[in-house]
Amino acid sequence: MERSPLTPDRRVQRVVVACAVLQLAVGLFTIRQYGYFRDELYYLACTRRLAFGYVDQPPLSIALLRLVRVFGGDSLVGLRVVPLLAGVAVIALTGRLVVRLGGGALAAALACFAVAGAPVLLAFHHRYSMNALDGVFWLAAALLLARAVESRRLGAWAWLGVVLGLGLENKISVLWLGAGVALALVLFDRPALRTRGPYVAAAIAAALFLPHLVWQVVNGLPTVEFMRNALQLKYRERSFLDFLVEVVLVMNPATLPIWAVGLAAPFVTRPRGTARILACVALTAFAIIAATRSGKAEYLAAVIPIPLALGACAIERWSTTPARAAGVALLGASVAGMAILVAPLAVPVLPVERFIAYQRALGMTPSSSEKKEVAELPQSYADMFGWTELVDVVADAVPRLSPAERERAVIWTVSGGYGSAAALEILGRERGLPPVISGHNNYWLWGPGRYDGSVAIVVGGPRERIAPYFESLEQTGVVECGLCMPYENHKPVYIARGLRAPLARVWAEEKSFN
Question: Which of 69, 169, 179, 499 could form a disulfide with 60 if both were Cys (CB 3.0 to 4.6 A apart)?
Fold first, then answer.
């Protein structure tokens, strides 16, 4: 009995499942590679102090991680299951958006494989962060926006408001999504603005975001200061052309024809359904990020699946002849080939020694999107090294304290910021290390704790910077961490006794939001 051909819907499902399986396979293979990423340790530290906000992020991703820790503890596997599942969800939602736009199996294959092979998305879905969840909210919002515009149902608008509100509680950049929705409705669907739907969505989103806004006001708008410092001091300023080149690279250069068509086609051809509205949303986010001149291309990671779906559908409709279909097949093969080539640069599929050799073979040098020196590894990998060495050197200093001093001592990370502080707090817990304080980001808001100025183990910083603060300063060791970021390497560790100045004044001077 002959097997009946697959229906278009079944073919789309199989394409999406194949991409999801690929994502799972890569994620599971690399889930324990190298070690904790700097930010992952910081997020774990934040889960021990739940709040309605933090200097550098809203609270949702931290609350979710607190729940994850109930089942998986602080293990790397438990920590990275969520971003891995988020990556699968992004692929599934991309496939769903393709169907919503009228695409079939070919469009789903182009869009979903492009998403699965995008270096920036591979990296974001390898480690825990709010960025891993961001794409889920953007794509869910895109689907709900399409449904709301097409159906005019109040319920669809209400659910859009819920997704926007939760997205804002995960990452404030969802404001760009809201701005794109508003602009798209003004330009292309003004009748919708004469209904209650958009205003109900906005009200629900604002209500869900309100607790974080109140926290910001109560704490002096720390995120505003953080973002201003990051744009001015932390990130490299670049021209629009440099920014565009970076976007092409982080999204896999072979996918450029797909998402470029997705951004342009709805405006130069007769659009289908909500294609023009969705393209406007994506272009708005693109314009906002580019306009900052310091914004990173990776900020578009949550946005880019939308134009990929739009472009894939347009290309599928165009490929009506054998010659055009052959061209599309060649495009798909180039996307897959380039994804294989660049995957080791995004996720640690290679042992570190082989990665360094591979990087050199490609003629690439390690880089950072921030104004930071790098060594043999790019910052995305270097920030996974050096934490156990740091804990070991600090632990060696503890026996030099008297029993009375151990009761009052704290560890103060003067350099290395929240990364060093979180590593010592999370990884040093089993070693019985003293509490950790720092002036960096939310550690500054958490304050000096029990520190009374009598004794501290000070990590990092040149002696001439630290010595004026204390009556005595004894160096106990130096952190040597090899493949870590250079500013984490060769850091001295001191025992500092007798804080000279009032603690409140010193703490105010140590504040660093960046």
Answer: 169
Residues 116 and 100: their CA atoms lie apart, in Å, by 20
Domain limits of the chain? 8-346, 352-377, 387-509
Residues 490 and 472: their CA atoms lie apart, in Å, by: 21
Q: Tokens 């990275």 appear where?
A: 80
Mean pLDDT value across residues 356-370: 79
Give the list of residues 6+ apart from residue 162 with CB closer than 8 angstroms, or none: 204, 205, 208
Helix axes 154-170, 197-218, angle to 10 degrees: 20
Phi-psi category of 492—alpha, beta or left, where left has phi over 0 and alpha has psi -120 to 50?
beta
Q: What is the 3-state secondary structure (H, E, C) of 94-134?
A: HHHHHHHCCCCHHHHHHHHHHHHCCHHHHHHCCCCCHHHHH
Neighbours of 511 (CB within 10 A): 13
Tokens 């010592």 found at = 424
Distance of CA 348 to the CA centre of its chain: 17
Tens-digit pLDDT profile for residues 160-192: 999 999 999 999 999 999 999 999 999 999 999
pLDDT at residue 351 tops 60: yes
Comparing CA positions, the residue from 313, 350, 305, 343 lying closest to residue 87 is 305
Map residue 271 onto helix, strand or coil. coil
- Distance CA(466)–CA(315), nearest Å, equals 61
| The predicted structure's pLDDT at residue 269 | 83
Q: Measured at the alpha carbon of residue 257, what is the angle toward residues 268 and 112, in degrees to the nearest 5?
A: 105
What pTM, to 2 d.p., does this model score? 0.92
